[in-house]
Description:
The protein is mainly alpha-helical. The protein has six helices and no strands. Helix 2 crosses helix 6. The mean pLDDT is about 85.
Amino acid sequence: MNAQPMTCGDYVTATFARDFVAEGFDHDTVERIHRGLFDEWTHALAQSGLFSNGTVAAAVDSWQDDPHSLLSALLANADEITLKRYDLVWEALERSAHAGADAVVEYA
């Protein structure tokens, strides 16, 4: 049998996805993740006692390289409508970032 090693996204999904989706849509969290502000997630992983310092550091490095990977991991078990709402906000933030505007993004 070939066991596949877990990725940092797998860890986040297993640890936080259920609660993240259950708490309802959170526009502010999407903005923080998009801006690369991962402190709450880093702290939660580190304080869980489930992960080594190296695993937490690898997760943060991964998120810095691709912030959307954190959001994807958090939404791994979300329904189609929830995924669409978050995707729309992420896309709007991307457009705003590429336009160089500091506009406030409204969500659906």
